[in-house]
Predict the 3D structure of the following.
Amino acid sequence: MKLSAPYSQPALPVAAGILPAVEPVLPARREDLRPTGGGGTVRAVSDVGDANPGGRMPPSTSGRETRRYASRQRGFTLVEILVALAILGMIVSAIYATWILILRSSAMAQFVAARAQRERIAVRTVEDALICSQSFQASMKYYSFIVINGEEPILSFTARVPEVFPRNGKFGDINLRRLNFTLEEGTGEEHGKNLVLRQNPILMDMDEDEKKFPLVLAHGVKTFGVDCWDTNKLDWVEEWDNTNAIPPVVRIRLQLDGDANAADATALTVVRLVAMPCEMMPANIQMPNGGGPGGPGGPGLPGGLGGPGGLPPLNPGRGR
């Protein structure tokens, strides 16, 4: 009988007829001699040899070598760390740029919204004041309607302001006031011109606080203009010199300074048409007898044209 196994060496010579030739077999971890079936040849079979059909044994590995191999697999090279840091830096830069863009867009949106709100408040204040305007021909000193355009535009008239008008708390129940809308240079850190409102009761002078600290309706105003419809010329006029009437229609133009990078500055212009619901009261209707409430030559309205009754009395002899 002949023994065969992997990892064999040349057979040693033996005496003929005594023992069959047997080749030495390298030791394995677990071996089993199994008959190959038919020729009586015995083959050495091992667990590792079954897993390796080629007959080669894998190199033996101890526990220390296994841990060392695993540790080498879990590590990173310097190049890999640098590449990872570069990718992380790119991601952080993109997030930071996006966040800055969001902040700038939010600030610009808030600025535009605040500016539009300021425009609406300013125009609405002028519009409410014009609707409540009053004028009496017998007392033009207090009820004149003045419109001046140009570098220093002025809109001045008398109105019985509503209950929700600005600074009503300062003047209390005196709602018949003289209103002056002007365009003035900003003070301090303010740039550009401001649309301001000064007001005083009709029979009182303007106080120092109102002169120094007017109500600012809009900041950064580029243009402010008031046009009046002239029924004689059938056209808009920039100055109203008709002291015996109030313009039937008034056009308000307000333009704020836009962004320096904005391509269309006209988008910031607001135009309103105000139809005046009142007319100037003629003197003969206000004082049909030529005098005030106390009769000819009585107290009347102060500061009128002529005598204390607002107009010269029709019969001077009766006033003596």
About this structure: The CA atoms of residues 156 and 180 lie 4 Å apart. Residues 1-5, 45-51, 260-266, 291-320 have pLDDT under 50 and may be disordered.
